Amino acid sequence: MTTTLERVAPFTNQAIKTFSDPADAAAMKDALAAVRARFGEHYPLVIDGKKIETEKKIRSINPSHPDEIVGLTSSASKDQAKEAIAAAARAFESWKRTTAQERAAYIFKAAELMRQRRFHYDALLVLEVGKSWVEADGDVAEAIDFLEYYAREALRYAQPHPIVPIDGERNELVYIPLGVGAIIPPWNFACAIMAGMTTAAIVTGNTVVLKPSSDSAVMAAWFVDLLHEVGVPKGVVNFVPGSGSEIGDLIVSHPQIRFISFTGSKEVGLHINELAAKPLPRPKWLTRVVAEMGGKDSIVVAADADLDAAVEGVAISAFGFQGQKCSACSRAIVDASIYDQFVEKLKNRVAKISVGDASVQTNYMGPVVNEAAFKSISEYIEIGKKEGRLISGGKRAADKGYFLEPTVIADIDPQARLSQEEIFGPVLAVIKAKDFDHAMEIANNTEFGLTGSLYTSDEKKIERAREEFFVGNLYFNRKSTGAFVGVHPFGGFNMSGTDSKAGGRDYLLLFMQAKTMSRKV
Ligand code: NAD
Hints:
Bound molecules: nicotinamide-adenine-dinucleotide
């Protein structure tokens, strides 16, 4: 089973389904019923290819109906986490000797199966994390893209690399894997980010322990099963759900962990970075940490912007998937000359957003992910009501389920908590800027630097933003969310992380080291 870069078609993105085709909508309804029929299923740990049920379980609930249990995942003990790392270390000895062609072939096969089962993956996201149908399909499409893209990238890195020739020597540079990695993804792109981080690590020849988020452990279990189904050898991917404090710290500081690939909050990212830097009994390397963290993303609306387009872009970026995207717009920074008009139009637009059970096709917004998120976001709404003027929302949207109204709070001071802290929910701060200079100053006034967007019709303002707007992903006259693999390599500056640029040509380098070999001739 081999494949080469020349033999695979060039990468193209999966189109995201709108479900306007009745056949797609019918298939999705069937898939939702099929996933519901599996509610309550048990998902064991997978260590060295062996499935292990533990007594302690992680309950994955449906945030639209918190009394429904989507699945029960086994929860690894400290000893089991250590066993998983040992298994990955053993498997590394043979996996590192496989060719990129062999490894890529497994991943292409996994991508194909995921395409075939796409609606089931969509349905699981709707039920496990509360994504709307379209958002769920975007997540699964992105996962397939990551698989297809990274497999091609692994083949590209396996090709000869240009080296300056010199008389009397033959020189070459090859990329080799690092070793055993810890993969620690978030729940918010439960399929795409989890699958992307895992795939990047193994397609480059590393072996991993995957510790998923407890809010989306079933999706990770499905993906691990899929990898084994296509023949990825035992021990290459070890599945160890568990609590961050119980086994997370152990995994991160384990001496056999060579690298950590983390995506999540700033707080946990900083904690992991600190643990990984400690000179414990670490054998002979600096543990490599790739940490993609939070955001406080702004859309700047200049005086000369197309106002309707800006309102639309802000509403979608702020409230798509309930504002639970690292790229979500949580601050609209609006020029004073159009501020009142903007706020009025935004209020009218937000009034059209429907909130409710994510499995109902017509609901644009579903629930937030869990009770803790519901409480924390609700607290921020109360803070916001004191810091500014409530324009839309501000309340729970239904009795049961973690539903919150899309909330807009205007007249927020640039230094207010609502302007500075990541809320990770459907709460938008609107901030008035005196002029464009002031807007740029506000846009850069947080510790984060993930995404940003500018609506303007003035080329000079675009030029200035290109120079000054300090974010990893900057957009003009479009929403701040919806990065496509290969098209918009993704990652942020400052406290938004190590700018790994997932879905870009540099990403796989983070999972490899280069070896130069010189031979006298
Ligand atoms: P989180 O930080 O709470 O958790 C992320 C992962 O870390 C989870 O798997 C969790 O179980 C694990 N974890 C928690 N404590 C740990 C510990 N002590 N040791 C090891 N692992 C531990 O984040 P979340 O709520 O899952 O995700 C939301 C956050 O992720 C937001 O801040 C969002 O901005 C960020 N995010 C960033 C990007 C990006 O590309 N920059 C993408 C998606 C999400």
